[in-house]
Design a protein that fits this description.
Oligomer: single chain
Distance between the termini: 69 Å
Largest sheet: none
Helix content: 55-70%
Strand content: under 5%
Shape: elongated
Radius of gyration: 19 Å
Order of helices and strands: HHHHHH
Number of strands: 0
């Protein structure tokens, strides 16, 4: 019987690091970025994330690159939600939204 062997996951994050850095540069670019170029980088990074095991090295990479972190969270949302997003920022945004809704409704906060 021929058993299929699972493909080994990547341990070296060199390519993932380069793509995360490139995505960060594209996200923060002051000049317009082509949609196809942006999509290409994102799709390559998605493929890398699919092959990379969760590790301390991956966590450090995600701590460094917010754009890659957002992509990673979206890819893993069904099991982890926005687990890497700052709770303080999320809470502050929720409070600001609530205050804006109350102001629009003519209520005090």
């Amino acid at each position: 019987m021929n058993a299929t062997k699972p493909l080994p996951s990547k341990v070296n994050l060199a390519v993932t690091h380069v793509l995360a850095e490139l995505l960060e540069r594209l996200d923060n670019s002051t000049v317009p970025v082509g949609a196809e170029q942006y999509r290409s980088v994102v799709m390559h990074l998605v493929n890398e994330f699919n092959d990379v095991p969760s590790s301390v090295a991956l966590a450090a990479l995600l701590d460094t690159y917010p754009a890659a972190t957002e992509l990673y969270e979206n890819l893993n949302y069904e099991v982890a939600g926005l687990c890497r997003s700052s709770l303080d920022l999320s809470l502050a945004a929720e409070q600001q939204a609530k205050a804006a809704i109350n102001r629009a409704m003519g209520q005090s906060t």
